[in-house]
Amino acid sequence: MIEVFAELFKAQYKDVFDKRILTEIQYQNVGFHLEKLRSYQNAFQSIEIRLDAELKPLDKKDFSIYLTNEKHIQTYKNKEKFLKALNEYVSTGAEIKEAIFQKALPMQFNYDYRTNLLTPN
Questions:
Q1: Taking the mean position of all CA atoms in its chain, how far away is CA 7?
Q2: Separation between Cα atoms, residue 10 and residue 25, nearest integer Å
Q3: Residue 111: in which H helix or E strand, if any?
Q4: d(Cα 121, Cα 108) in Å, to the nearest integer?
Q5: What whole-number distance in Å separates Cα of residue 12 and Cα of residue 96?
Q6: Phi and psi at residue 103, in whole multiples of 5°?
Q7: Contact at 8 Å (CB) between 118 and 98?
Q8: How many Å apart are CA 42 and CA 82, to the nearest integer?
Q9: What digits encode the pLDDT tens for the residues 74-120?
Q10: What is the distance, to the nearest Å, from the Cα of residue 56 to the centroid of all Cα atoms in its chain?
């Protein structure tokens, strides 16, 4: 990543800087911090994803909701039931402001921008 950036940087600024000026000084003159790019590169390279021959991940991660006890499961089901009733009410032509529900019941509902609906948290 750093090597590619260095090549592109040199190509773009070849007529701006003298060849005798160190590359680090050139970066400083344009306001670029190489340390940030190094830290991003290190963070990116630390991500371990095993791929098969077709470049598909071997380890399938399940990002489903995990509830630890019966009380949490019942609370989640009640939130779903509430949202179902609310959506039925909206389907009759009523208008609601989802943000009001999020403010009135903090940390209980999220707004899903893909479906334009509230979802249980």
A1: 29
A2: 13
A3: strand 109-112
A4: 5
A5: 53
A6: -75, -40
A7: yes
A8: 45
A9: 888 898 999 999 889 988 988 888 888 888 888 888 888 888 888 88
A10: 20
Q: Is the dihedral of CA 11, 14, 16, 19 positive or negative?
A: positive
3-class DSSP state for residue 78?
A: helix
Predicted pLDDT of residue 100: 84
**Cα angle 100-103-105, degrees, rounded to a multiple of 5:** 105
Mean pLDDT of 45-67: 74
Burial environment of residue 18 by CB neighbours within 10 A (0 to 12, 13 to 18, 19 or more): exposed
User: pLDDT, tens digit, for every residue of 4-47?
Assistant: 888 998 888 888 888 888 888 889 888 888 888 899 989 988 88
